Each structure stands twice: as structure tokens, then as C-alpha cells.
Amino acid sequence: MSKKPTTKKTAARKPTARTKKPKVDSWKRADGRAFDELRTLKIESGVLPNADGSAYIEMGRNKILAGVFGPREMHPKHNAKPNEAVLRCRYHMAPFSVDPRRSPAPSRRDQEISMVMRSALEPAVFLERYPRASIDVYIEVLEADGGTRCASINAAAVALVDAGIPMKDLVAACAVGKIEDKLIVDLGDYEDKKGQSDMPVAYMPKLGKVTLLQMDGDLSTEEAGKALELAIEGCKKVYEVQREALKKKYGIDQPQDKPQELPPAEPESEEEPQREES
Amino acid sequence: MSKKPTTKKTAARKPTARTKKPKVDSWKRADGRAFDELRTLKIESGVLPNADGSAYIEMGRNKILAGVFGPREMHPKHNAKPNEAVLRCRYHMAPFSVDPRRSPAPSRRDQEISMVMRSALEPAVFLERYPRASIDVYIEVLEADGGTRCASINAAAVALVDAGIPMKDLVAACAVGKIEDKLIVDLGDYEDKKGQSDMPVAYMPKLGKVTLLQMDGDLSTEEAGKALELAIEGCKKVYEVQREALKKKYGIDQPQDKPQELPPAEPESEEEPQREES
Amino acid sequence: MSKKPTTKKTAARKPTARTKKPKVDSWKRADGRAFDELRTLKIESGVLPNADGSAYIEMGRNKILAGVFGPREMHPKHNAKPNEAVLRCRYHMAPFSVDPRRSPAPSRRDQEISMVMRSALEPAVFLERYPRASIDVYIEVLEADGGTRCASINAAAVALVDAGIPMKDLVAACAVGKIEDKLIVDLGDYEDKKGQSDMPVAYMPKLGKVTLLQMDGDLSTEEAGKALELAIEGCKKVYEVQREALKKKYGIDQPQDKPQELPPAEPESEEEPQREES
Amino acid sequence: MSKSNIVSHLKQKKITEVLSTGKRMDGRAFEDFRELTIKRNILFKSEGSAEVWLGKTHVMVGVKVGTGTPFEDTPDEGVLMTNAEFTPIANAAWEPGPPNENSIELARVVDRGLRSAEILDTHELCITVGKLVQIVFVDLYVLNYDGNLIDACGAGAIAALMGAKRPTFSEGKPTGEKVPLTVRKKPIPVSVIKIGDNFILDPTADEEDVMDARLTVTFDEENHVCTMQKSGSEGLTVDEIKKCINMAQGKAPQNRVKAIGD
Amino acid sequence: MSKSNIVSHLKQKKITEVLSTGKRMDGRAFEDFRELTIKRNILFKSEGSAEVWLGKTHVMVGVKVGTGTPFEDTPDEGVLMTNAEFTPIANAAWEPGPPNENSIELARVVDRGLRSAEILDTHELCITVGKLVQIVFVDLYVLNYDGNLIDACGAGAIAALMGAKRPTFSEGKPTGEKVPLTVRKKPIPVSVIKIGDNFILDPTADEEDVMDARLTVTFDEENHVCTMQKSGSEGLTVDEIKKCINMAQGKAPQNRVKAIGD
Amino acid sequence: MSKSNIVSHLKQKKITEVLSTGKRMDGRAFEDFRELTIKRNILFKSEGSAEVWLGKTHVMVGVKVGTGTPFEDTPDEGVLMTNAEFTPIANAAWEPGPPNENSIELARVVDRGLRSAEILDTHELCITVGKLVQIVFVDLYVLNYDGNLIDACGAGAIAALMGAKRPTFSEGKPTGEKVPLTVRKKPIPVSVIKIGDNFILDPTADEEDVMDARLTVTFDEENHVCTMQKSGSEGLTVDEIKKCINMAQGKAPQNRVKAIGD
Questions:
Q1: Mind listing the domains of chain E with CATH numbers?
Q2: Among candidates D69, D85, D86, D87, which has minimal Cα distance to D77?
Q3: Interface contact flag, D5 C224, Cβ < 8 Å
Q4: Which of B132, B183, B221, B236 is best to mutate for the E interface (most E CBs within 10 A)?
Q5: Cβ contacts of residue D93 below 8 Å, gap of 6+?
Q6: Is residue A22 in some structural domain?
Q7: Do strands E132-144 and E79-86 pair parallel, antiparallel, or not at all (unpaired)?
Q8: Which among D104, D227, D228 has the least Cβ separation from residue C112?
Q9: Could you tell me if C225 lies within 8 Å of chain D, comparing CB atoms?
Q10: What is the pTM of this model?
């Protein structure tokens, strides 16, 4: 989603993100990134006037909108829980987001991603504060470029805070893959398809917990451990961009008082060299 | 629907309808009609024993049944309106009504026609007299020959009166098209497909209001204005046949006391030369 | 469904079933059976730990499970009847039960069989004892070999008793067909497809009533009468196997006190020569 | 067709009382049919059609002939497909929507009657072996419901098929000509319902509403049975079934005459 | 877009009061459009795209070109398909699910505008006569709803199509090259709504919520009418319709300039 | 698998109390599996089959080999499709209907395990390049549910595939012969669930009902990881994940032996 030219919204951040301690390994990827370097990452909150909370993310060429509605009365009522809110997620791709065009009807993959997104976000939300309510998170993928589930989680977490939902922590997500026996972070579409492994991870940085973990491919258990740690490093970088997006909107220190639980900055987040998209 | 031979129902009318003031233009159409001449039109009310109101129409070779149920309790209840009845329309084509056979599942076109039918009929009904109720209008097209939406509206209006629903006015519908740069009324299937423009119009003759207006093709704004007026002339002819059908059933002057709002005859409706179907 | 090797459940019965009075006609079928001889028949009750009642049947190479749930609260409630329980049946085939693989979505044939199963079982159940309740009978065909509707009814009847539902009678089912102008019972798949007629019948032996009767093919009315009687003979043989399966589980004389209406053995059921599956 | 509510119970009581006097609510004797009227070929966009009235029951049957691929195991045979639709104009209680249990039963019973009798010469419907065959659709379209749809639709289906013409093909191309469909048999279904101890023919909607059981039997011209279908919530004894078959058999020929004309 | 509930009645009263002073809730005059901004080709996986803002109404239009079989009666012509999706992020009251009445109307009106103008050269979309043609999908994806979707989507569709490139084929095989789609006309829809006795352009969601009627008119570059569509629960007189057509006609050229760029 | 109601809370309390003593409700130690029994090729209409019991969990796996068109980007490769069905006989709370979230997850996790391991030689499934390939359907049919479906179905899928035979083709025509499917790897999933601070293997339905999180890890014969899938409403630390991987890895070989036989 390109910026509407004439409107002055809370400004976007277009930074990111080589690691601060450059590794010895100078191997480069097809697009010139280092193994632990994220694609260009841009997050903006409060982009949808009609939603209670929203965020727009560009992660590489992924373009994704997240809208949050709630807490609101559950409909239909019999799905409500007496002691807490129900978090409902719906991941959806625009027909023109992929090649070839896809049908607008939800696929099995869409349903699976909706489910893992819910599992990834649930642990971060104080659901018990809104018994009988629903909190609805809707994802619309406008353009897909590999790693849409991670990008969607990143946008959804910011949108939840933007909606004023009390959160225990943010949730930041990033994938790690293996190509030519090397572990790399944040795979683009072209890497995704020829990779030997793909492992999307979501992480709550303050609480130190993994809330999404999937993997397909071939990794030794050692590699799996390393990949997990590398992914978490990536999540932490994403987290900084998320916080920045919220800061831009809500002021420098803390984002309003409602989502009081937004975590303070992690100490290791000082420097972030910028990288422009090729 | 052919007449069941052995039953004596309220008789049909098989008239209609060259204009009373023959125009100078003597151009004729493929089927020999003048530009402002309707196809053979026949309307019969009270044809469905189980419906609260019903009508059968033959307009050219269109054969269409309309059944009205209600005012009755809305089901499901949450669709009811506290201050008025809800008019629901459903346009449906029999699988054998067109060539080639069509699936019985409702198409996008069916849904669109259902919607414009509702808009066309709503303004004529005293919905406010039946809060929380539904009034259901079901259309079954047994044979389609061009202009089914107009023919369906014509049948539905008569069926509503037949159901005893209080009406502000009848609704009469007729299309105008452009072929070889000439405007003509009530296009048949063969004209519909090669026409340059098609404009279906529904009209409340007593209230002087247009309730359906669609157009596809290419008309200057002047032509559009002329076409609209020509269509309304066609609607007025249809209206006479509708009134006749109701008179046949309910007596000469007024059709029972329930639909008190049935309009009196328009002055210009005296003569109607008959035309037999070829 | 093969037996789980290590578990000792109530033993199966693998008998059946030439007629006790050998006919003069010595004509044999493709699989060597006499005209009035059932395929190998095996019924076991109480096979599904989570169901209120259940049965597994092998009738020829048919392999079918029946699970009964209820009487339980009807869901959705508006389907409940104020004065009796509603018996609901669902016949379903596993995708791998036939060749070629079939879609898991229910077909029109599935819905028809579900309906005739309900009609076949309803007359045997004291529905009036459980107003507002539902009794759900679910059939899963794991392997189909001709005559699945009869086999399903046989399993369902045993499962209903196993669930402790009070019954007026058991229901036993068996088909009769005509091949080469001869009437034969319990057609296998290979016979089903080349037969001139197929007539599935369900019967309540104690009450002497037919609760399922379908027929396709070509029979004189005389033949139809004979076929019906032959089918009922087959049903009576099935009935003995059903009673045996329940006896195995519930003791020799009567199956617990709950399904008090289980009928006593019919006098003509003394001898049952065994036949092993080829 | 539930008997669960109070209105139904009152209706049942009333109907049963009248039956016990040997008559029916509308004055008919137990074996009387209402008037059956069938008009053929009244639709010009269908390859064949029949409009059927049976008392107030009113049905339109349309036959359309299209093309499609044959089944794998019968590469040189065309296909007959029968569908039934319960339109919402036909009964205040019927809602628009996909086929329900009752419309599926109607379509299946009529369909089985036609197939059992091998009514069509499916080989003449083959255009290119294994590739393209003609598909004959029989659509049963219920316009007003007052009971006994199976008998009305079964007779209407025969009438529509006998009047139908199919396009012809030559070397896989349409010739532009039409020839009558070959209709090899004329199966006619007749339904008998049981209410209490009474057996009646051609039930009205009210009678079907309180019936205990129904047996439909389809007969061909030699008065052989092509299909049977029992429905309803009560069982029947063997004697009762034989009685039903006989009652039905008695009526099939006269309904066939109505269907196929003179 | 119902007027049935109390909130709506209050809203209606308020809006009508303000209109009676010659102004609108947001200060616009009756014929004023909100700012219309269109950006083209911002998606790289679509053959064409346009992002449209009309006030707070926000729409993404994607054009995809695929292949498929032609319709039987036009074996040498490609196909144009228009779909609309009301995403649940666009409005708190919209739920995920299949197209509803309103999204179908949106798609149909835009679609009819494009087809009536014969906007595409469907013959250039033919790959192999009778076998394979190109299919042009126009997907209207509503991201935020604040009224007047038809005008926003109609302009966006033209913008997206004019920037679209289609793959080319040679003897049935893809050449790997892309050429611009031929866009022969630039039809632009303009909607007028009636509230009480007032006629206004470019309604907001609140205004649409209380409207009596709407007339959408699509114009081509010669200011001819390509399509009309009336909706809403009230009728219009002939004079009112002519007034609407004139009001709409006055705005079509400036919206076209926004859509096609300079 | 909700924890919202009172019964669940009591169950959770009870289960957690017992776990705190180092035992489980059924007396097993944390790492104990229930008895896993697998029988192969018990269905004669399937190309391969396996019946699996894991305690009271009971699953039938059927393998069918059909034909279809290949995907555009892999014209010379056959296709593997995995589906799961939660039959209503397997659990009182399961209703008939289309796949739900849980059955989709089951099918996807098993499917990803098979695909990640590139278990089939998809090239041997090609009949005519770009036109016709063999499709291998793996249907997971749950007959009784008492927890840990993924492990039961994953082992059953391998067992069924290893016993499966596929028809062969020569120049696009079936030869009438069957050969065993080539199964290149034997991936086995093992799930670990967390309840409070306890990690256990092979959970029952009651244990799954109160779990905080689950991690399923699929291993190939070299004890490499093929897939991972975390579910449940709580997060896991990195150490906890590593612990789960180790626990799972320890059990994979013995389940593989059960699946592939001696």
C-alpha cells in the first residue's frame, strides 16, 4: 500500500537492520543481504480509520494490512467464553496478491495460518479482562513475497496495541531458512522456494517466549537449535521497528496508558544501520 | 404455464397494445411490431392455491410465476425491523427456462435482479403497517425470452395486491432499447442480444415515480431522456393490463377493500387494440 | 476393521448361514453360495469407547461401524419435538471405501440412504420415552462390497441396543436380487452390478413388520412377493447373528434390563451351519 | 411430514374418523385419484416438457439435452439425470435453498423408475466414444404442493420424455436437426399410503401429513414392478405390502394413458 | 444501509437539517467531491493496479491476466471478469464471508460500465480460437469504507486497466513478453443520492446510510451514457432523474482526469 | 481444546496435582507411550491401508492412487494429498461436517512431515508429462479419539504408504499390473505437551484438554528434524523447546519400528 500523497499521517519508518556485531562470514545472498540481515521493514500503525486498531507492514515486498475490532460483543453469542475474551484471527489473501490469481474463497492453508496466528498472539493478550467478548484480528495480504505469516503477526501485534488492547508483551516474528547448508534470516519469495528448510518463529521479547514455531525441511537437532536462536535475533530486530512505529504514534516513551504492558526497550537495540531496498 | 384445461379460474387477459396515437414512423421490427408496441401480454392473478397472493405473466414468450407470502412472522427473527415489514424478493430461473440448461443454484445475476426487484417494489408497499413482519416475493421463471426482470416486477406487483397487501400504487415495468439507432419498447430475446442499449424501467403510474432504472449500452443524455419517457409510456400500457387482471378477479370497480390504495384508472387508457401472439 | 490383536473384547461371531431346510435347487453362485445363503456375517457390539453404543459389522467384505449417541439434548434446539425423541441418521463412506476414491463430501445417495435408514429404524425405537431429545446414529463405511445399506441397518440396530435405548424389536436387513432369472439373497458387489433386480429389505422379526423396502429392476408382482418372503428369511438369519452379538456382551438370556424390549429367540433359529469366508 | 405438533394430532384425529366411515375428507373413495391432467410440449426452450395437475398439485417437468463426458465405465453411453426442485411458491413452509431430504427422495424415486426400466437407449446418445455424449436432464419443478408428488412427477417425466426431441450429431458435429428421443418403456409410479388401518391412493398434503407409511410401486407396460420405495415412520406387514402392490397395480395403466396421450 | 433503527433516525434528522441550510455535515457543497487520489501500478505481482482514496474511502484495484476457455458463442474472444470484495477491515459491521448483495451490486455496476463501453479489445485476448483465451480479472478490494464505493472503484478500475500489461502468445505459446492492454474507452461512473429533497454527489457512509435513492450514471469520453443504475428504497420522478444525470455528467470529466493521469 | 469451563478447570487441577507427584492419571511416567499397534493392508479396495491403535485412540489410514493433471510448475511429477476426517463416531463432541481447524491442522502437520521428507519419488508417478500423473491420496480417518492423533496418524501414514501398491502405465495406458510405491524416507512425528511445568509424551484426550502448549517434531531415520509445529495457547522458552525436541527424538525410532514392521 503506497502512501496517500496528500495526507500527513504519523510517519512511517523505513529502516533496517544489519546485525550490530558484523560476523566474520562475508557470504552474501542473491539480493546482497548478509545471512542475518532482514529485508527492508516498514511498519505504520493507525492506518485504517474504521478499525479499532490497525497496522500496515511492508516486509520485503510483502504488503499487508492488519485490522483489529474489539473487545466487542461476541457474535454468535454461544461462541463466547464466560471467563475471558476470545481472540479470533482471519488470514486472507487478496486475489491479486499472488501469481497466478487466486480465488477469494479461503483455502486450507489460510485456515491453518489463521489458527497458528491465533496461537502466536494469544499468549500476549490479557484476555481475562474482557469476559464474553471477542477480539477480532483480520489480516489482508495485498502482496505476498514470502514469509507472509511472520509479517502478518508483526502487523497484528502492532494493531492490537493500537486498538488499546492490554498486552503482556509484543509479539515479533521472523523466519530462518537453510540454503546451500547456510542458515539465513527472513527469506524472500525467491529464497523460500528453493530453500532446504523454512522455520517461522514468533517471539515475545520481554517474556522470552516462543509463541509460533513451525519448520519444514531438514535440520539436525543442533541446526534446529541454532536456527531458533538466529530467528529470535531476527525477532528482536523486528521488535525494535514495531516499538518505533508505536512511538511515532503515541509519543516517545510509552504508547498511551491503555496498553500499559508495552515492554521497555531492550538494552541491545541502540544502533540500526539503514538499508534501502534494491 | 398453459391453462389447466378443465378448471375455470378467473379468466386471463390476452390483449395488448399498440399506441393509441399511431406515429408517423412506419418502421417495423423483425416481428412486425411498431417501435412503441408491446409484445403480447397476459396477466392472471390468484393462480397459486398455496400462496397468499400470486400472479402468472406471459410477456412475449416469457412465462413467469410470482408467489407472495405474508405479512408473516420474520424467520430468522433477527432480520426483522421494529418499525416496519421487510420485503424480501427472490428471483429464480428454472433449469429448463434457458438454453443451455442452467444449474439450479442461484447465480450472481439472480442475486442482483432479486435486489433491484426489491428496490422497485418497496416504494409501493405500506411496509410500516406490519412492523416485525416479512413479506416474501418469490419469482419462478419457467421460460425466459428477454426482459424477465420487467416481467417479474409486473407479476410481483399484481401478486402483492392479490395477497391483500396495502399498496400505495401498482408498479409496472417495461424496457426500452436501441437498435439501428432507433428506440423501441419491450425488447424480445432476439432483439435484446443484438441491441445497442437496453434500459429496463419500473414506474408507479399514480405517484409518477420511477422505481427501477438500469441501462447498458450507449445513449446520449438526450436519448436517455427520450428512452425514459418511452419506457414510461410502455409501463402505462402494462399498468392497464395489470388493473384488468385484478378487476377480473375482484370486481369491476375496486379489488376488495384490503388493498385500498389501488389507483383509479388513468384517463388515457380507453382503447387497447388486441394483438394475438404469432 | 481388523481386531486389535492385544485386546480382549467381547468375542465376535463369525458364523453363517445356509438355510436349515436345503432346497432341491442345487444351482450355485459365482462364490459357491446357495441361492438363499448369506455371505459371511460377523457382528460385534461395544467397539467404540467414546460412543454410547456401537457395533461393527462385516457382511461379506463390507466393513462398517455404527456409533450411537443419545438420548441427548437436541442441538439445535428448534429441531426438537415436544413429545418424543428425534432419531437422526447419517450414512457416510470413507474416501477409501470404494474404487475410485470418493470425495468426503456427502452425496445425494448418502442423503437418501440416511433417510431410508431412519425410516427403517424409527419403528423399532420407543421414541416417546425421550421427549425433546435426539438419538444420533452415525454410520461409517470403511469398505463397501454391495448391500451397505442393509449392513448399516444391521449394525445400527445392535448399536442402539448397546446404547441402552429401549427398543420394541430389533431390525434386521437383507437384500434379495435376481440374476439369470433366479432369486438370490444378500448380493455381493460383483452380483449387485450385473443383477436384473435388487431389493433391500429391513424387518422387525418379533413384530413381523417390514420397515425398509426398496426395489430396482424388473419383477412380476408374483416374483416381488416371493422375493419379499425370501428377503425376510434372510433377515431372520441376520437377526440370529445380531442376538448372538448382544448375548456375547450382555449374558445369555437377556441383554441387561435397560433395553427390556429385546425380543426372545424365534423358535426357528435352532441350527446354523457355519461357513468360513473364502 | 412430522406428526409431532398439536395441530397435526387434531388433523390426524379428524382424518382418521372420516376414514373410519369409508370416505375421505374430500369425499373420494379410498382408491380414487383426483383428476390427472397433463399437457405436453408447452415450453419452447426445452427439448421436451409436460405440465401436470393432480388436483391442486401442480408440477412442471422440463427435459433439456446437453452434452458432456461419459462415465469411465460406459464410454459409449449417454446419461440420464433427474433433479427435483421444491420451489418456495409451492408451499408456505418451503424455503428457498439447496435440495433437502424430501426433494432428493422425489428425484431419486422418479430417477430409479426411469433407469430401472432402461427407458432411454443410452447408446444412441453417444457422440464420440469416450469423449462426448448427450446428457438428458429431467427437471421436476414443483409449482404447487398438495400431496402425491411422486405419482404426478413420474407421469409427467414420461410425458415430457415422450415428447422430447434431441439434436443429432454427425462425426462429432451438430447437424442442426432434431429427432425424437427413443423412449423404450413407460414406467408409471403409484403410491399407496397407510393411515391407521386404512390404505388410500393419491393422498393430499393433509393426508400425507398424518400418514404412517407409504409404498410407491412403479410399473411398466407389462405391469411388472420396476421400483419400490417404502417410506414413513411405521412398518408394514407382508400382507399389507402385497395389498399395496395390488392397489397400485390397478391404477398404473390409467395414469399411463394420461401421460402418453391417446 | 437500512433506515430502521433509532440511531439511523437521529442521524437522518441531523443530516437533513444541515442539508436544509444548503451545506453538508463535512462542510461540502452539494456538488463537491472529496479529494480523489489515484496511484497506479503499485503492486508488482499484478498485471495492473490502482490504489484509490476518496476522502476516507480507500480501495485497491488489482488486474490479473490469466488464461481459460472462451465462451461457446464467442470462441475467438477473451473475457473480462469483475469482482468486488468487502474486506472485514473496511467497516466494523462487515463480516468475512462470500459476496453479499451489496458487494455483488458494486461488482455488477462497475462491470457493466466496463462492458457497455466495450472497453477491451476482446479479440486481441484470443490465444487459440475455441480453446484458449486470456481472462482479465479486475478485483475491487475495499480497504476502508466511507461511502461512494462505485465512483471510487469505477475510476480505479480504469486506472488499473490503463496501466496493465498482458503477456503475449505466439502460436499458443507464451512469448515471455508483455504489452499494454488496449483500453478503448474510459467510462467513469458518478453517483447522485437523494436525501429528502436534496441531491448530493459523493456521499459519505453516513449520508448513504440515510439516503432515499441513488442514481449512478457512467459516462464515456463523449459524455454519452454507458450505464445507469438506480437503487435505494424510494422512487424518482422523471425530472429528478434528468437532474441526476446532469449533475453526474458535470463531474465525470474531472474524475476521468484523475483516473488516467495527465 | 478450550480451558474455559468449570469442568475443565477441575480436570486441570486434578491432572496437575497428579503430575506434581511425577505420575499421570493412568499411571504412566511422563515419557511413556501407550501401546502402539499397527496392522497393515487390511482393506482390499485401498492401494494401501493401516489400522492404528494408540491406547484408545483408533485411526484408519487409507491410501488410494488415482490420476489427474500435474501442477503447472511440475509437469512431470505426481502429487501427494493428505486429508484428515474427524468422524462423529470418534468423539461425542464432534459433529458431522466439513473439515474444521483441528482436522486441518492434523492433515497439514502429517502432510508436511511426508512432503518435507520428500517421501515419494514423484517422478515415478508421471504418466504423460504435463497431462496425466498419479495422485496419491492419504486419508486419515479417526474412529476413536483419545488424544495424540498426530503421532498415531503420522505412524499410520508411513505404514500405509509402505504397504501400498500403485498401478503402472505404459505409454499412457494402464498395464493392469501393480508395483510397490517407492517410499524413500520414514518420517515419524512425536508430540510433547506442556501442562504447568511438566512435559509429557503421548497425551490422552483429557491431558490435551488442559495442555498449555504442544510441540510436534517429525524425525527421519537419521534423526534429523523434518517438521516442527507448536500449538496451544502458551509460549515456550528456547530451553523448553530444546527439551521437547530431545524428548521427542528419543521416541521416534521405536515408533518407526512399530510403523514399518520388522
A1: 13-260 (3.30.230.70)
A2: D69
A3: no
A4: B221
A5: none
A6: no
A7: parallel
A8: D104
A9: yes
A10: 0.90
